[in-house]
Design brief:
Structural class: alpha+beta
Shape: elongated
Number of strands: 24
CATH superfamily of the largest domain: PAS domain
Helix content: 40-55%
CATH topology of the largest domain: Beta-Lactamase
Strand content: 15-25%
Largest sheet: 7 strands, antiparallel
CATH class of the largest domain: Alpha Beta
Distance between the termini: 72 Å
Number of domains: 4
Length: 699
């Protein structure tokens, strides 16, 4: 009974603890929902404000273009009147009629296809459509009659009125004309059809913006079709005064509501006495809320529910992780135990086979089937031994425990010759000859002797394995005085690799390379983990690798080591630096390999499939470095780099590293001329790539 009571008590405590935690989580989620909803709302409001400012600017531009172009026409006519004289009314009428026949972009904005001449006494003496008036109308009531006299040669406007003879609402406007001495001769008047001008403005807007254009007396000049105020309405004069429009551009302290329309921003038009009011319809704002903020609320609520479910399973997941960790540790212990036992057995089998074979000549072995079988057993044992070694090394790499042993100075020549000697039997069985070309007096190389031999053995055996029969593998070593590095080259004339296969090879994914064509000609025993070990050993030795290869022509692998370098023999690991890199590459295989390499090294990587997509991403996000393929569809790397340097954002100094199949002088010049900082051949090692990136990010 006590045990049962204690168990129930523990269950209640756990239940209470989870309930409390769940309640806190729900409240936190609700708070997060409110915060994010507010942020979304503010974001939408900011976008709306920017869109309204843009719309107001578009309206202002449309009006200015129409008025200014009209003034140019009036000035052209006025100059001829000045030159000929204003007394000859027939000449002015003919001039108007001739000008009317000129097609121009503003013709649809005139309420009639005609001009009027208002003389110095403010009488409308000519209408190009009706001719010379016998009983001219007095136009002194028009504001332009006064303003044109005060400001000749500029377009002056009046309050909207019914046009004569069109009888439609127009904006009367006129340009004053003077003689050479500045004497006022009269004004060329024209009428802008209100509905036509409003329609032109609405065509340039997004269809969501409502607008009203007021004159300096707050009378309506223009309005969008969804605003239903009468043309002669005094709504603005009664309810507002011009003091609320204190600046050239701004936001109203209190929105002006006209039915379902909410006008919230204004802009004054330069040169003309007009004020533009812009806003949105409530139905649009409601739809916008439903389309933007509401989905965010639903998303965060779903996220909160999901979060609670994750928390509920957290303890079980934690226990499972612990169990898995223990299981992995047990697996590793068993693997090492079995591997060491297997190595002992393999050594025994190989040793006994070699004891038998060492006493026999090649002729005796070739003539005896049993001896041939023993030779196969010996070769397979050595292959299996290498596999076990690689398997153990691979397991250490996976666990992050791969370390170098004792570091000391070694003779490069001795290291190579020892490996070549061991590899001769394998080369002979593949009918491949091994040759060396090693410079004398090479500097000593500080390294782990065993691990360095492992690098050489793996690369030399690969060269033998993928070489054609009766071909040659050359191992060369030299000292590069310019870079002060030791260079070791392993060259074969075998099957070779494509650029994509080189990338896989240098990323340690050699097993993914298609070997079906090679298998038709030659049996290849490969388990695909050796190269990943070589790359890790090179990284630990701070070495570099470069691969040059052509399909069906052969491969040259170059290793570079600094004989003076000092390094720690302990575990090497790349720290997560969180820098953002944009990878611009259209080949999905290359993207997968390069992106994984960079992410494993601690970088945040985004991908664009072409230059155009890269520009769009750069417009939205900020990056620390760009890796750019040079040959891509839509927009290649060179043109993309030029456009990046010209962006408004501060991308003039961002490092751009070109990824190309060739790093010759021509390619390098083309890349640098386009604005790229550096060029890396696709055959370069991951160590070289990561070091180059690190060097640029540390500048």
């Amino acid at each position: 009974m006590p045990n049962t009571t204690a168990q129930k008590l523990r269950e209640k405590i756990c239940s209470f603890s989870y309930s409390s935690f769940a309640l806190i989580a729900i409240l936190t989620a609700m708070l997060a929902v409110l915060i994010f909803a507010y942020i979304s709302f503010r974001g939408v409001a900011a976008d709306n404000s920017a869109n309204l400012q843009k719309s107001a600017t578009n309206i202002s531009t449309t009006i200015l273009e129409s008025f200014d172009y009209t003034n140019q026409i009036n000035n052209y006519i006025g100059q001829q009147i000045t030159h000929h004289g204003a007394q000859d009314l027939k000449f002015i009428l003919e001039l108007f009629n001739e000008t009317n026949r000129i097609r121009n972009r503003n013709s649809e904005l005139f309420s009639w296809s005609s001009f009027d001449w208002v003389d110095a006494k403010n009488y409308q003496v000519i209408n190009s459509k009706l001719g010379i008036h016998k009983n001219p109308k007095d136009m002194s009531g028009r504001q332009y009659a006064i303003l044109s006299r005060q400001h000749p040669w500029t377009l002056q406007v009046s309050s909207t009125a019914l046009g004569n003879p069109s009888q439609t609402w127009v904006i009367p406007a006129a340009t004053g004309v003077t003689d050479k001495n500045g004497k006022y001769l009269g004004a060329i008047s024209i009428g802008f059809d209100v509905s036509e001008l409003s329609g032109r403005i609405e065509k340039k807007l997004d269809g969501k913006t409502s607008f009203v254009v007021l004159d300096q007396e707050l009378k309506i000049v223009l309005q969008s079709v969804d605003i239903k105020l009468p043309r002669d309405s005094d709504f603005f004069q009664k309810n507002f005064n011009s003091e609320i429009f204190s600046t050239e551009l701004g936001e109203l302290k209190k929105e002006i509501e006209i039915g379902d329309i909410q006008l919230s921003q204004y802009k004054k038009i330069s040169k003309y006495p007009y004020i533009i009011l812009v806003g949105f319809n409530e139905s649009f704002l409601s739809r916008q809320f439903n389309a933007t903020v509401l989905p965010r609320l639903i998303e965060f609520i779903c996220l909160a529910i999901f979060f609670l479910a994750i928390l509920y399973l957290f303890e079980a997941e934690k226990k499972l992780r612990t169990s898995l960790r223990e299981l992995v540790d047990s697996k590793n212990k068993i693997l090492f135990s079995i591997a060491h036992d297997i190595k002992n057995q393999i050594f025994g089998i190989s040793g006994l086979a070699n004891l038998i074979l060492d006493k026999k000549t090649r002729a005796e072995i070739s003539a005896n089937e049993d001896l041939k079988t023993i030779e196969v057993i010996s070769d397979q044992s050595e292959e299996l031994m290498e596999f076990v070694k690689d398997l153990l090394d691979s397991n250490q790499i996976e666990r992050g425990e791969f370390r170098l042993g004792k570091i000391r100075e070694n003779s490069v020549k001795n290291l190579i010759e020892e490996v070549v000697l061991i590899s001769k039997s394998f080369a002979k069985s593949n009918r491949v000859s091994l040759k060396t070309n090693i410079e004398n007096n090479l500097p000593k190389l500080r390294c782990d002797e065993h691990k360095m031999k492992e690098i050489f053995a793996n690369l030399i055996n690969n060269a033998i394995k993928y070489s054609n029969a009766r071909s040659e593998v050359l191992i060369a070593a030299k000292y590069l005085t310019d870079s002060q590095k030791i260079c070791i080259e392993i060259t074969d004339s075998g099957y070779g690799m494509t650029d994509q296969e080189i990338i896989k090879y240098l990323s340690g994914d050699g097993k993914e390379i298609d070997k079906s064509e090679i298998a038709k000609k030659k049996k290849i025993d490969s388990y695909g983990i050796g190269m990943s070990i070589v790359l890790k050993l090179l990284e630990l030795h701070k070495g570099e690798i470069k691969v040059e290869s052509k399909k069906n022509l052969g491969t040259k692998i170059s290793l570079f080591f600094n004989p003076q370098i000092s390094f720690d023999s302990g575990q090497v690991s790349v720290k997560n630096n969180g820098k953002k890199i944009l990878l611009v590459e259209d080949n999905p295989v290359n993207v997968k390999i390069t992106k994984r390499l960079l992410e494993d090294s601690g970088y945040n990587v985004s991908n664009a499939e072409n230059g155009q997509e890269a520009l769009e991403i750069l417009d939205r996000e900020n990056f620390d470095l760009i890796l750019m393929d040079c040959e891509m569809p839509i927009l290649n790397g060179y043109e993309t780099a030029k456009q990046i340097r010209a962006l408004d954002k501060n991308y003039r100094s961002i490092p751009i590293i070109a990824l190309t199949a060739c790093d010759d002088e021509k390619s390098t010049k083309k890349a640098t001329d386009s604005g790229m900082n550096f060029i890396i051949e696709k055959g370069s090692s991951k160590t070289n790539l990561l070091k180059t990136i690190e060097d640029f990010l540390l500048k």
